[in-house]
Amino acid sequence: MVEILRSEWDAPEAVALRAAQRAELDTRYATSDHEAGPVPTAESMAVFVIAWSEGIAVGCGGLRFLGPGVAEIKRMYVVPASRGTGVSTALLRALEAEAGSHGITRLLLETGVRQPDAIHFYQREGYEPIPAFGEYGSDPLARCFARLLHSGQSLENRSATPVKPR
Q1: H-helix or E-strand spanning residue 14
Q2: What count of other Cβ atoms lies within 10 Å of the Cβ of residue 119?
Q3: Residue 65 C-beta-side C-alpha neighbours within 13 Å
Q4: 134-141 long-range contacts, Cβ below 8 Å, gap at least 24?
Q5: Domains of the chain (ranges plus CATH)?
Q6: Nearest-CA neighbor of 91 among 136, 133, 121?
Q7: What is the pLDDT of residue 151?
Q8: What's the rounded Cα separation, in Å, for the pair 89 and 41?
Q9: What digits encode the pLDDT tens for the residues 85-105?
Q10: Which residues contact 117 (CB under 8 A, 6 or more apart)?
Q11: Which pTM value belongs to this model?
Q12: Helix (H) or strand (E) segment spanning residue 129
C-alpha cells in the first residue's frame, strides 16, 4: 500500500528523490541543464509530498502556486522500480486534492519530449496539451499540460489518497 505524506522540501528523502530524478533527466536529455526557469526551492514550493511504500520513499511531487486559482505541479517523480504500481496515480491524486483544498481550480505542468511515459500518463489522467507557459515558452523540448479542477469537488469521481503530515 502506498501512503502519501507531506514533507519538508529539504528532508533527506525528498533531496534523494529529486537527485534521482535529475540523474534520470540528465541521461534522457544528455545534459544537466534542463531547468527552463528558476530552480524550485523550499520557499517557492507551497506543497511537497512523498509517496512511501513499506517504509521506503518511492516518489514525490509538489505544487508551486502561480496566481489566484492556478498552481503548477513540480518535481513529480517515481523511482523506476515502483512505476506501473499505482504510485504515480496516488501522487497525482494527492497533489490534486491538496490543490483543491487551497482553492486551486487549474493545474499546469511541464514535461519533456523525451519523457513519453509522462506525457502518456498525464493525458490518460485528463490533462490537456496547452501552449508552453511562463519560462517554458522558449524551450523547444517542453510539453505543457493543464487540467481544470472542479470547484468544491476537486477530484470529480476520483478517489484521492489522503495526504497526512509526516
Answers
A1: helix 12-29
A2: 17
A3: 15
A4: 134/37, 134/66, 135/36, 135/37, 135/38, 136/36, 136/37, 136/110, 138/36, 139/36, 141/29, 141/34, 141/112, 141/113, 141/114
A5: 2-164 (3.40.630.30)
A6: 121
A7: 59
A8: 24
A9: 999 999 999 999 999 999 999
A10: 83
A11: 0.89
A12: strand 128-130
